[in-house]
Amino acid sequence: MDFVLVHGTTQSPASWDRVAKLLAAAGHRALAVDLLTPEDLPVEGYAQHVRDQYDGERPVVVAHSGTGVLLPAIAEALGARSLVWVAAYIPDFAGGRCLRDEARALLEPDWIGVDPAAEPAKASEFLFHDCDPETERPALDSLRLFSPEVLATHPAGPAPEVPSTVIVPTRDRTLRPGWMRQAAKERLGVTAIEIDAGHCPHMSRPAEICGILTGRG
């Protein structure tokens, strides 16, 4: 099975390295795509940018954090068989609100205004607090800001028609676990899978994430 792994707003594709290696060891193909471009694109442009990086068919598409905004469009462009939302924003498909409209309900107050890519200590506090010392160094090395205006302002379109899995880290210090849990139920009609981790479980708990992705978690 193919997995297309989409980095979040504060990390590069390297954030998926550990999960990708585990997926490959289990006999799957994993591609961590890069969303960064020389100039900001519309949502459809980022979806095509991912399409240009992937040469397979019907992958499982996995997105982290704020790139949940892009996940439905990317999945449609790739003809995805299913979607996985990892500590991710789930758009307001019925109401059409954008991420900016929901930010104060979604984000933990102490996280608002923090740029972890510029402040490694803040990254350790908010993103990687559950990482062991061996993991924290590559986690910090993966920091890179990706925050085009479209992520904040794009109004939600229709809900995806393919199945979704939602992974909620119960010790997330950036996105509210309760909000993600409720959004999974109300917006996607699924019960979230909860994991004892912070906002980046693909860094701190890669084997658990791999197990969920492959159906063994």
What does this structure look like?
The protein is of the alpha/beta class. It has a single domain (2-213), classed as Alpha/Beta hydrolase fold, catalytic domain (Rossmann fold). The protein is 37% helix and 13% strand. It contains ten helices and six strands. The chain has helices at 17-25, 43-53, 71-78, 99-106, 120-126, 133-141, 149-153, 177-188, 201-204, 206-213, and strands at residues 2-6, 29-33, 60-64, 82-86, 164-169, 193-195. Strands 2-1-3-4-5-6 form a six-stranded parallel sheet, with helices on both faces. Helix 1 (17-25) crosses helix 10 and helix 2 (43-53) crosses helix 3. It is globular. It starts with a strand and ends with a helix. The mean pLDDT is 96.
Task: Describe the SSE topology.
Elements: E1 2-6, H1 17-25, E2 29-33, H2 43-53, E3 60-64, H3 71-78, E4 82-86, H4 99-106, H5 120-126, H6 133-141, H7 149-153, E5 164-169, H8 177-188, E6 193-195, H9 201-204, H10 206-213
Parallel strand pairs: 1-2, 1-3, 3-4, 4-5, 5-6
Helix pairs in contact: 1-10, 2-3
- Silhouette: globular
Please name the fourth-level CATH homologous superfamily. Alpha/Beta hydrolase fold, catalytic domain
What is the average of the pLDDT values?
96
Radius of gyration: 16 Å
Level of helix content? 25-40%
Write the element-wise H/E pattern from the N-terminal end onward: EHEHEHEHHHHEHEHH
Report how far apart the termini are: 16 Å
Number of helices: 10
- Would you identify the regions where 5 or more consecutive residues have pLDDT less than 50? none
Strand order of the largest sheet: 2-1-3-4-5-6
Query: For the record, what CATH class applies?
Result: Alpha Beta
Structural class: alpha/beta
Q: Per CATH, which architecture? A: 3-Layer(aba) Sandwich
Question: How many individual domains?
Answer: 1
Q: Main beta sheet, described?
A: 6 strands, parallel
Q: What is the fold-level CATH name, i.e. the topology?
A: Rossmann fold
- Proportion in β-strands: 5-15%
Topology, number of strands: 6
Protein name: Alpha/beta hydrolase
InterPro entries: AB_hydrolase_1 (IPR000073), AB_hydrolase_fold (IPR029058), Sec-Metab_Biosynth_Hydrolase (IPR052897)
Keywords: Hydrolase
Domain AB hydrolase-1: 3-209
